[in-house]
Amino acid sequence: MQPFLRAPVLRVIALALSLLWVSRAAIADEVTRVFLFAGQSNMVGADAQAERIDDFPDYKGSGATRSEVLFSYLVGNETSSGWKPLRPLSSFGPEMTFAAQVRKKSPGPIAIIKSAIGGTTVAFDWNPDAPEKGQKLYPRTLELVRKSLQDLDKRGIRYRLEAVMWHQGENDMLDRALYKQYAEGLKKLIARFRKDLRVPDLKWYIAEVSEKGIWGMDHRSNLGILRQQQQQVLQADPLTRWVPTSHLAFEVMGSGQPHYHYGTQGQLQLGDALAEAWLGDQGQPAATVVRPVKKEPTLAPKSRVKLFVLAGQRNMEGEDSFVRSIPEVPGFASLTKDQEQILYRYSLGGGVRVSQGWEPLGPVDFLGNFGPELSFGARLRQAIKPDEGLAIVKFTHSGAQGPDWFPKGSPESHRNLYPKFVAFVRQAREDLAGRGFNCKLAGIFWHTGENDTWFGPYAQNNALWMRQLIDRTRLDLQQPDLAWYITGQHKNAPWRNMESVNAALAGLAANDPRVTFIQTSHLPHGRHHFETKGTLLLGEEMAKAHLDKR
After folding, report:
1. What's residue 451's pLDDT?
2. CA 178/CA 393 separation, integer angstroms
3. Distance CA 490, CA 487 (A)
């Protein structure tokens, strides 16, 4: 190096080092936001397996240790004895993806304290006034938080106790002597935490006990009572927030029974949901956002428009069908892009994600999934006349069950979907007519409910309920000849009672010329659902059934 170059280069290096030091000093001086994750088995992360994380395309790498996030925990029989880098333990909960999303959307240091033990109740284990009962989780958690914060003080780290992420209530719900005490017990717990930690404005995020699991069926009434109790807390305390979860993935047992726990994929999604709720309160972009729509598809004035409706639960919503995997299926790669000639409206997850007016048909940024609508629309667009318009309405809730669709409603009125469903379809049809289009409701496509198939009392009445649903939609939509298409459960699906349910639905179709039962057992199928390739082919099968009826 020439002498006259050496000094400037050294000055540049020195400047770079000084800027790096300033950057690190600035980070060290930032306030570390501390989050407490607390609850029972679904907060522990029971049945979530770190080795399966990379099976889910949108979450590859989410199980890696995050050295930039401090982690202190009392989880089951595992304790950290001080701060550690955030990583999965023998299982993992929502903290992994929560940390990733918060760090991504709201830069700055965070720390997570986690206290969770399965099978615990607010009535006993978490009761501040009953420290001698059960797992004594209130005093143990209080000690964990205090020691963890004292350690931050010793390290010279400025911090703020930001919020509590809470998932609990299953065991209180199961005991009819306890479940109506839940609201008062949780209010007392929240108040004591705020007082003992000297954080009077501590926010508390209450994650829903999922209705998609087995308790949403065999303890439907109890779970409804628990929700009412939790809503009392939310209404009484403006610093509490509700986080819906029944639309998230939920594990299924080998027998086909919906599980008691979210499992691997569900825990990853639960972390995103909690992060989205907290980020929303900070005025930050959500973890997932409604896709930007450049423009609404345009149709020729006064043209004929065929309107199709897709409705149902798990497979119709698209559970385990991943947009990222579509290009791996030959012939379908183009479906990752919007189909500009097809109008699309949707309400997903029971209303968790709703389109704002009409969009072009395409993948929606919702859990990374898609349903049969993409290939269904593409196949129909190829077959209908060029001067005809095509519109699709999708109304699904992967966590729903038969009683949720009762036209007459159910005692758990917050779960009622039918009035919302009919109103959503009617609004779409009236909107098209109001724009001057000759709109024809060409058919409703329904996939047999997985939860209904497994649960005996629901399976036995499935065909009867479908008859009532079909008759009522024809009446309420004022279209007596409205065609219905019902896709059957696959022979390789794990749900029980499939053969009898499929047979009953095929019998229903045989007695109604405007109902078509579509066999699906020749299609590809995964562990629990049709998955990516099967869903793409299911959409084509649905389109073919309609085209064959013309």
Report:
1. 86
2. 43
3. 9
Closest by CA to 304, choosing from 379, 234, 384, is: 384
Determine the Cα–Cα distance for residues 346 and 134; give it in Å rounded to an integer.
46
**Radius of gyration of the chain from Cα atoms?**
26
pLDDT band at 293; cut points 50, 70, 90: low
Determine phi and psi for 336, rounding to 5 degrees.
-75, -10
| 405's tokens | 């669709």
Summarize pLDDT for 332-343 with one digit per residue, the tens. Answer: 999 999 999 999
Q: What is the length of the chain? A: 550
pLDDT tens string 321-333 = 999 999 999 999 9
Joined tokens for residue 294: 């450049």
CATH superfamily of domain region 33-281: SGNH hydrolase (3.40.50.1110)
Query: Which amino acid type is present at position 123?
Result: A
- Six-digit token string for 508: 């229903």
Burial of 381 (0-12, 13-18, 19+ CB in 10 A): middle
Domain ranges of the chain: 33-281, 305-549
Per CATH, the homologous superfamily of domain 305-549 is SGNH hydrolase (3.40.50.1110)
pLDDT value for 131 = 65
Q: What is the pLDDT of residues 241-270, one digit of tens each?
A: 999 999 999 999 988 899 999 999 999 999
In the chain, how long is the greatest CA-to-CA distance? 96
Q: What is the mean pLDDT of the chain?
A: 91
> How does residue 509 score in pLDDT terms, banded at 50, 70 and 90?
very high
Residue 286 confidence (pLDDT) above 90: no
C-alpha to C-alpha distance for 116 and 13, rounded to whole angstroms: 49
Cβ count near 343 (within 10 Å)? 26
pLDDT at 291: 66
Place of tokens 């955030």: 86
CB neighbour class for 326 (10 Å; exposed up to 12, middle 13-18, buried from 19): buried
Q: Are 325 and 532 in contact (CB under 8 A)?
A: yes
One-letter amino acid at 524 equals: P
**305-549 shares the fold of 33-281:** yes
- Integer Cα distance of 307 and 287 in angstroms: 32
Among residues 444, 459, 427, 448, which one has the least CA distance to residue 490?
A: 448
Residues contacting residue 483 through CB under 8 Å, at least 6 positions apart = 442, 443, 444, 514, 515, 516, 546, 549
Give me the pLDDT at residue 18, please: 37
List, as one string, the DSSP characters of 456-479: HHHHHHHHHHHHHHHHHHHHHTT-
pLDDT at 288: 45
Phi-psi region at 186: left, alpha or beta (left = phi > 0; alpha = psi -120 to 50): alpha
